[in-house]
Amino acid sequence: MPINPLAWRIIASQRRFVERFPSLPETITSMRYLLLPFTARYMAYAGAIIAAIALLPLSLTDPVYWLPFGSAVILASLGTRDLLQTRHSLLRNYPIVGHIRFLLEGIRPEIRQYFAESDIDTQPFSRSERTLAFERSKKTSDKFPFGTELDVNAPSFEWINHSIAPKPVAAEPFRTTVGGPGCLQPYSISVLNISAMSFGALSANAILALNLGARRGGFAHDAGEGGFSRYHREHGGDIILQVASGYFGCRTPDGRFSIERFAELANEPQIKMIEIKLSQGAKPGHGGVLPASKVSAEIALARGIALGRDCISPARHSEFSSPRGLLEYIERLRQLARGKPVGFKLCVGHPWEFLSICKAMLETGLYPDFIVVDGAEGGTGAGPLEFIDHVGMPLRDGLMFVHNALVGVNLRQHVKLGASGKIITAFDMARAMALGADWCNSARGFMFALGCIQSLRCHTDQCPVGVATQDPIRQRALVVSEKASRVESFHRETILALAELIAAAGLEHPAKLTPGHILKRTALGQVETFEQAYDFLEPGELLSGAKSPILRDAWSKARSDAFSLA
């Protein structure tokens, strides 16, 4: 088909134009690569400026345009600020629209929790576990329909064997007595108690609700390392007084341990036991700092520290530096507390260090009344990721090791064991008690009872439900009387579930649980009991020579006069 003469003329004129300006195609191409990104990156900013300019004359004559004009000005100002700031590269390239990314990042935990996760995603706690805690705390139905959602054939699946002849469900709450021969005021403790959470990490209303719930339910409330505040005192619930490396609440102005202050606190009737904190599961071997900006007058009073100054929590104690020194310190505190039970809490680290404490017990004849084993999976308000993820022994391994060590040196009968670390359900308790625990502590379980929604904002002071914040506006959302009832209900319903579980296993008390009652599926698909899966020592086996070369080696390295290797 012949080409139209007009088309020939247009093509010829374009060719002459290009010949006259030979660099024009390259220039147009370059402008395209410049303009397209500009359009994508700065469209919102340019649009806000254009809108502000266009709406200015209209807004001067008609009030109906004030709102859109004001919005355009605000957006244009925001875009200008984004372009001029130097902190965020994203905002310099994408003014205004870059904030969408930060908005979505800020609500990522909520998006995942409400829309993406399944009921059995387990990190940190599954929706099923949280729902169970919510329902039990609210005294609504804790029953689930249509069978388990867990893969019962998956490696690591665990269960408890039931009996063909189950026992009647126990009517009385399960308790155990803590206090050795040197203890003049033994304490009958519930098998489920509130784990250590400080005033400062938790709000005043949260502490009030926890302690009121503990008093009503007859269980203990560990005050945490932040001291015995007026909020712990107000309702009179049983308190476990924690003495940590900062000696908060019982310290001198220069941060040393105060005998007088401790004796005054320890002899209050509300204080039932004394717990020396050696380490915490979520960040063992790590101290902490509460910034001066967060040290309010009430926190300063409770901790015995200066107002408006950084609150330093050292990584180690200054009152002792050896296993013998620890046991002598325990005996000293027991005397100052007039015979109340005194023990210590730790997350297990080097095996020979705990075995060195066992050697010191044998040599001195001094024993703690109890030991609380905290697992590395335990929670914290804030901690370095490396410590949270990769430091310390998990609860199951740590608890089994401590129980084994005490059995192996014939001291288990003198010392009661508590277990703490991600304990929510009655099965969590049964599993821990089968491995040697005499009772369990739960922190996050009781936080769920208070209304915690696992928003993962504990370290920001912006807890949306008023549990982990010192913001008076945020914490007013937590109504003490309502949440105290939920704390009490969560404890009662969980203990009832444990009673039903124990009865189904053909037992009268969880103290009769053994490793043979709990089973697990291995990576090869085989089934074995905890008794078969783990090595348990015979009484006195460490003294006569443990079969395990690892334990024999650790025992040989342990020394009673120092935590260092022999």
From TrEMBL:
Keywords, alphabetical: Membrane, Transmembrane, Transmembrane helix
Residue ranges crossing the lipid bilayer per the database entry: 42-60
Domain Glutamate synthase: 192-507
Swiss-Prot/TrEMBL GO biological process terms: glutamate biosynthetic process
MF terms in GO: glutamate synthase activity
Source domain of life: Bacteria
Pfam families cross-referenced by the UniProt entry: Glu_synthase
Presence of keyword Transmembrane helix: yes
Entry-linked PANTHER family: ARCHAEAL-TYPE GLUTAMATE SYNTHASE [NADPH] (PTHR43819)
Family membership: Belongs to the glutamate synthase family.
Protein name: FMN-binding glutamate synthase family protein
Gene: glt_2
